[in-house]
UniProtKB/TrEMBL annotation, chain A:
UniProt membrane topology term: Peripheral membrane protein
Pfam families (alphabetical): ABC_tran
Protein known as: ABC-2 type transport system ATP-binding protein
Transmembrane segments: none
An example Gene Ontology CC term for this record: plasma membrane
Localisation: Cell membrane
From TrEMBL, chain B:
Keywords: Membrane, Transmembrane, Transmembrane helix
Domain of life, per lineage: Bacteria
Entry protein name: ABC-2 type transport system permease protein
UniProt feature coiled coil, ranges: none
Length: 316, 266
């Protein structure tokens, strides 16, 4: 569905050097990305600020011409075949609006039907589904410029989907949304992915989006892919472990050890302890702990994706 | 077919958006009208000072002005909106235009309504009408053909200039009003008999860049006057060729510009 082969984009920027002198400098925003994404995949495309995520999406959608390398989306080459490709993809750039500023949402949607030249029936069905899942009814007749960010974003998502695209490119679709709106957007996308005919590429800084939606995670930094695989693979690579958190009746005795685990923190005057599970299952560790000390409450905590990704970003 | 319906829908949407701002809409209509009136007044004032410019009487010169300003007003009406490109390029909002399944140029043109420029068109055509009436033209079928052809070719020619000057923004984001200076400079150049210009300046703009064939040469052919600069009468019929050349160049530059577009970080 999507193929990138050694894709590069350089930007030439002029930097001030002295009062009149300007130096040309080349920034490699995307620096040799090769990826293949199959139909129906939901890919999280993440990376620190300035990593080149948006630039990649712009090349995939035909907005920017690659400096070198090859791209193909839906079997088309985005730049020369931009308008044909546009009929088959949906795009949301979180920072840019696709909607008509002075028109109510409803009219924007109607207009998009003509712009994309889609049959009225299919359009109406998709719109109804978006209205239900994204709760649009409340502000469907409000001019776009009067919508809140979260409302507008739900409108943008709908706008990107009304023509039934095969591939969806979402650049920070949850930026600035409140918890409830974020969840609405996530469940909506999850629902969309369940059918398996929409391919989704999503960039975000909220890793919960990825955890919830994407099987596959591609991490880029300085324009290069530094990880490509499942979230589990990322955890495995960095040896992230689950941990056991327990609240105790009495403080933990000095020198206490639990086989196959590491004691990583003791808080609340020794009443709350955390063990990282190195080589035992949660069951064995719980049994061992309960046998040794009086436990009031306990829980097993999954490794935190934010920690792993932060390690990936700072490693450079 | 489908595309035309898409453009029509975009146009209708623009009308709806504009009607929300009716007050400012009227102000703009009259503001624009004022600018055109000034252009014509400039020429009249010039001729008050000297009864003849470059060997042409006021009446004859007004015919040149009329052909040029009718063509310019029509071009401004049709593609003048393209000068908004620089704001879109600067802000990176052209992205949204480029991800839609329609060519970028017509979309841009439909992002603002030229209704406010209709009065300019009317005024330009009135000037042309007055100029035609004021001159004692000996009408032949060929001249009738020419009086229709010339403003249309001028429209295409000026339209190409509009697109070319706007395209500057693709390479030079901070071009500001330089593109506009080029456009309006071109119009002003074509409004006068080219015999008033110095020779290298004339050779460059009138002949090499083709501005002399837009209004000056056709006016000579209509009036049945010999060209003081020596070109034959059929030079008055070259404007469609010049317009076609300009349009080809403009289309090429536009396409190259779109590929050169670099958006903004986001
Ligand atoms: N139009 C442009 N002109 C010059 N440099 C640019 C342009 N667009 C992006 N860049 C540079 O390219 C690099 C990648 O930018 P990009 O917008 O792709 O980052 P990103 O991964 O989307 O970051 P963020 O998470 O902050 O959105 C940055 O160093 C940026 O400065
Ligand atoms: Mg970005």
């Amino acid at each position: 569905m999507i193929k990138m082969q050694d894709l590069k984009k350089d930007f030439t920027v002029r930097v001030k050097a002295g009062r009149f002198r300007r130096l040309k400098r080349t920034v490699a925003a995307v620096d040799g990305v090769s990826l293949t994404i199959e139909r129906g995949e939901m890919v999280g495309y993440i990376g620190p600020n300035g990593a080149g995520k948006s630039t990649t999406l712009k090349m995939l959608t035909g907005v920017l011409t690659p400096s070198s390398g090859e791209v193909s989306v839906c079997g088309l080459t985005p730049v020369p075949q931009r308008t044909r490709l546009a009929l088959r993809i949906g795009v949301v750039f979180g920072q840019r609006s696709q909607l008509w500023w002075d028109l109510p949402l409803r009219e924007s949607f109607e207009l998009l039907r003509h712009v994309y030249r889609v049959p009225a029936a299919g359009h109406a069905t998709r719109l109804r589904r978006c209205r239900d899942l994204l709760d649009l009814d409340e502000f469907l007749d409000t001019p776009v410029r009067q919508l809140s960010l979260g409302q507008r974003m739900r409108g943008e998502l709908t706008a990107a989907l009304l023509h039934g695209p095969e591939v969806l490119f979402l650049d920070e679709p949850t930026i600035g949304l409140d918890v409830v709106s974020k969840q609405a957007v996530r469940s909506f996308l999850a629902e969309l992915g369940r059918t398996g005919d929409v391919t989704l590429v999503l960039t975000t800084h909220d890793l919960a989006d990825i955890e919830r939606l994407c099987e596959r995670l591609v991490v880029i930094d300085h324009g290069r892919v530094v990880h490509d695989g499942s979230i589990e693979a990322l955890h495995a690579r960095y040896g992230s472990r689950r941990s056991l958190v327990a609240d105790l009746d009495r403080p933990l005795p000095d020198g206490f050890t639990l086989d196959g685990t590491t004691l990583t923190s003791v808080t609340a005057n020794g009443h709350r302890v955390t063990f990282t599970l190195d080589s035992v299952t949660a069951g064995v560790a719980v049994a061992g702990l309960v046998a040794a000390v009086a436990v009031r409450d306990l829980s097993v905590v999954e490794p935190d994706i934010e920690d792993v990704v932060a390690r990936l970003y700072t490693e450079r | 077919m489908g595309e035309w319906r898409a453009y029509a829908a975009l146009g209708v949407a623009q009308i709806r958006s504009v009607t929300v701002y009716r007050a400012s809409f009227l102000v703009e209509v009259f503001g624009n009208m004022g600018a055109t009136v000034f252009d014509v007044l400039t020429v009249l004032v010039l001729f008050r000072a000297t009864p003849e410019v470059g060997g042409f009487s006021l009446r004859e010169a007004v015919l040149i002005v009329g052909l040029s300003s009718a063509g310019f007003a029509l071009a401004d009406f049709a593609v003048g909106n393209v000068d908004r490109l620089k704001t879109y390029v600067r802000a990176g909002t052209l992205d949204a235009v480029l991800v839609r399944p329609l060519p970028a140029l017509p979309q841009l043109l439909l992002m603002d309504l030229p209704i406010r420029k209709t009065l300019r068109v009317v005024f330009g055509l009135v000037v042309l009408g007055v100029a035609v009436a004021a001159n004692d033209i000996h009408w032949t079928p060929l001249r009738l053909f020419l009086i229709v052809l010339t403003p249309l070719a001028a429209t295409v020619f000026f339209g190409s200039i509009f697109v070319l000057s706007a395209s500057l923004a693709f390479w030079w984001v901070d071009s500001g009003e330089i593109g506009a200076a080029f456009t309006y400079g071109g119009r002003d150049f074509t409004s006068y008999p080219i015999s008033v210009y110095g020779s290298w300046f004339r050779n460059l703009f009138a002949y090499a860049l083709g501005f002399g064939f837009v209004a000056y040469q056709p006016a000579l052919a209509l009036l049945g006057r010999a060209d003081p600069l020596g070109l034959p009468a059929w030079a008055g019929f070259l404007s469609p060729l010049v317009a076609l050349g300009a349009a080809t160049i403009a289309a090429g530059v536009w396409r190259a510009g779109i590929r050169h577009y670099r958006s903004t970080g986001s």
